[in-house]
Design goal:
Layout lengths: L4 H4 L23 E4 L2 E12 L5 E8 L4 E8 L3 E9 L6 H10 L5 E4 L2 E15 L7 E10 L4 E8 L3 E10 L5 E4 L5
Antiparallel strand pairs: 1-2, 1-11, 2-3, 2-7, 3-4, 4-5, 5-10, 6-7, 7-8, 8-9, 9-10
Length: 184
């Protein structure tokens, strides 16, 4: 073994997580985990900038049959939610009409037999980590049901583009068996 053999030897990349204790905050593209009696794979990672140096993450996950969004928010404690996209028109035409004409969200929305109440309005920036370095500006209105278990979000992108999602809060223990992708 020569003097330069170690110098030119390719260093193995250190993982960004403790491989003996992978947590939901360690998720990355290609990671798999179990949730709700199914195995899910992380397909994309999105980052949200809410201002004042406060960021949250969202993972687009798929179990091969459907896609969901797993959101992580670490404020005083870890808050997790799972949601899926829904058609904005499923919320009723008055929701978008009120946002377009009055620039004000309705105080409550009924969707799929459940009433959601406005919790907060949050302007922010969105970034698709895998796609580009560009950030897109948007406004989010977050709603919760009366028990604080189910969530509904309406987002406005640009002047006339709206998106919506519905889901629920989950506990960290509901996600298990997290494994990194074979690439790491």
């Amino acid at each position: 073994m020569g003097l330069f053999d170690n110098f030119f030897k390719k260093k193995e990349k250190e993982p960004h997580y403790d491989s003996t204790d992978i947590r939901v905050q360690d998720l990355d593209v290609g990671f798999v985990f179990d949730y709700d009696l199914s195995t899910w794979e992380v397909n994309n990672i999105y980052e949200y900038d809410w201002g004042d140096n406060y960021f949250t993450r969202e993972y687009k996950i798929s179990n091969g049959e459907k896609s969901l969004f797993l959101s992580l928010e670490e404020d005083d404690e870890l808050e997790l939610s799972v949601s899926s996209k829904i058609k904005v028109r499923a919320l009723g035409s008055e929701v978008v009409d009120k946002l377009m004409t009055e620039q004000k969200p309705p105080s409550e929305i009924t969707y799929d037999g459940r009433t959601y109440y406005l919790e907060e309005e949050s302007p922010g920036y969105f970034h698709d980590i895998g796609r580009s370095d560009d950030w897109e500006e948007f406004v989010s209105w977050d709603y919760e049901d009366d028990k604080g278990e189910y969530i509904l979000t309406v987002e406005q992108w640009g002047e006339k583009e709206f998106e919506a999602s519905a889901g629920k809060y989950i506990k960290e223990f509901e996600i298990s068996n997290i494994l990194p992708s074979g690439d790491t």
